[in-house]
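Supplementary Methods S3. Input chains for the assembly prediction are listed below.
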Amino acid sequence: MNSSSAKWVVLTWRLPSASSTPRVTTWRTLQRMGAALLTPGAAVLPYSEDLLEQTEWLAERIVESGGEAWVLPVSELRERDEAEIRARVRSARENEYETLRAKAGGQLSHRGVVALEHGYRSIVARDHFHAAGRGRAREAIAKARVRRRAD
Amino acid sequence: MRFVTRERLHVDRIATAWAIRRFVDPEASFAFVPRTRDIDNVEGTPFDIRGAELSHRGARCTFEVLLERHDLTDPALGRMGLIVRGADLPHEDASPAESSGVRAAFDGLRDRELSDEERLRIGSAFCDALYAFCSR
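Predicted structure tokens for the full assembly:
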């Protein structure tokens, strides 16, 4: 299959049971990429040339840590499964936007505002399915910036 | 020497090829193979390909591994290495601020309808500039 016809990238992996650091690194990297975790040792991402490449390097790190990993671009999932994956990823991003929005309402230093802006951009980058709450988070951060200027 | 890497070059492959030509072998030639192609029967030293000797090691990108292998200890190259790593692996911890801009430029270079030879030529000019910046 030509990868350009792929719609999803599946990563399956197994790490030696003693290796807690690679385990944490793997999970954290997948979270940052905006993956949906399916079962322990399986995750799925929407296909893009870049996410495929990033997944390949993550797989390589798993192998380096003594584990095993397969990167599988796939073209079609059941509609129901696709809907479930989208819903999970959206819900994770919605929570992240809401956390940012709540933080933006508090007392913030200039550095604090910059950190929220940085966090916002990272979330947008992994918001593969346009979760609710993006606009609210953006507005709250913009207001926080205006308040800092007014101080 | 002849080197082989995956086609549709992005920052780590271009920066590594740039450093090979500039600091290791000015006569180096490069071949670009599709993502799924087995490279066992392709002539040349593979780099930035899973399983290759000259490739990512732990959190480090191929460009950084090349610097280490060839004792390229110029601090400017070391700084450039951190920027390239952050641009290549955006999900790693604590990248330099420059990484996201460098990544954007190389994303755009990959999007353009160019041959990989052209991407390497243009990207190498960009690496010359980044190296000059890191030498400040």
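The CA atoms of residues 11 and 106 of chain B lie 6 Å apart. Chain B has a mean pLDDT of 96.
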